Input
Amino acid sequence: MSKRFAIIGAGMSGILTAIKLKERGITDFVIYEKASRLGGTWRDNTYPGLSCDVPSHVYAYSFELKPDWTHRFSPGAEIQGYFEGVAKKYDLDRHFRFDSEIERAEYRGGRWHLSIKGGAADSVDFVIAATGVLHHPATPDIPGLGDFKGACFHSARWDHSVALEGKRVGIIGTGSTAIQIVPALVDRVGQLVLFQRTAQWVLPLANPPYSADEHAMYRASPEALQQSYDFWSARFVDTFARAVIGDQDELHKIEAACRSNLEENVHDPELRRRLTPDYRAACKRLIMSDIFYPAVQKPNVTLVTDGIERIEAAGVRTKDGVLHELDVLVLATGFDGHAFLRPIDVIGEGGLRLADAWADANEAYRSVAVPGFPNFFMLVGPNSPIGNFSVILISELQLAYVLQLVDLVLQGRCHAVAPSKAATQRFNTALREAMKGTVWVTGCRSWYLDRNGNPALWPWSFDRFRTEMQAPDLVDFDLVARETTPQAAASG
Ligand code: N01
Output
């Protein structure tokens, strides 16, 4: 009997999964998406200045390289267009169910029973959760936020109906997002007030456009395009990815580059002091920009480093008593990077709820599966190497691994597969131990850290990740042989 699949999420990983299922001749699958369009983070984020800080030639499916990216780090709208184009090319339209939020997924009688907001339901053999990481905007817990009389929105919910020309615009936050917004807005707005709680290290990466000649060259030569992909991948893996997991030489090089960027490009000593972080470079997600420092020094920009006391009708009151009067307030305050599938109520074998299994920490086996949740897989799940590499390649490698587990069922070797508890515990113990050598735990606050202070990232090398994703080690899995009868399913 043919098996049915549900993919949750129509972002980068969901589209990838659909393509790879089709490649295997599997067509009985649905991509459930709570929004009205595909695209995930690139659909949700439309803020001015949005681009990807991973080079475009790497930030693409390995099997769908694009010869004509406009820039080394291309704008968000172009990336969204890329995913729309790929979905069209692979004829995925009939598989999408938009405006269909999965509220509950329960494993009963050997199958997954899905409840969709609005009352619809589905039953499938496999669930592949491609729900992404940074999709729950974090609203800051600042008193008086609702009192502000001007327009106020989160960076991931940009309100394009609000005119900014000549206005007094406040931005709370100095993460990757805010650092892209500031240069994009500075020449449009009257006054820009940047509220910085923590200074950032900034690596001065240029973002040159690709020329028409380069486009023609990459179109004519898939080998050249592949070489560019390999070049940028290797550069990332050999430098940044090593630095964050403990290669001190590489880390010192990054620190030196950030420090000289600050010293050479921020001219006022007092401003430089306020922009100097007190933690190691790359402890937080490293900022890549050669346009932030020039922008923050423009005469219409005020960098505010006094803490925020509260928000009032007219603006933001800082702890020194000053009221910063504003027309518009942007919350570039990041995301809950630990929510993963939540708020979906996922119920595994014997009524085990994922919420309970993850009550203390999000623990998965090699990021892709959880004991007690058979035939349920995640892409870019907990402890994926999201801080170190292009998330697209990560997702491709994880999916190739997951599909080998799926094959065990499709080939009739078992009815269901899930990692064992013991193997999952071993993996997570090793993870926690390895985290001690990473830069992420050297003393900074970041969205990487969960509430126990453990980074949600991969503490080992990319080679190790690639090796671990090559083939499942079946001693680490429970293969369920019994096919549950339809009667059992109905009574469950
Ligand atoms: O969010 P963040 P982001 N009062 O969490 C501040 C990816 N991304 O949206 O540092 C005052 O990094 C907070 O202050 P502090 C990328 O992975 C990728 O910028 O905690 N301030 C911080 O400055 C990135 O890492 C691209 O002290 C408050 C900021 O808000 C991730 O998204 C582009 C506050 C939040 O920074 C998230 O980046 C953009 C409060 N109550 C983003 N609460 C690419 O190019 C929070 N802050 C791929």
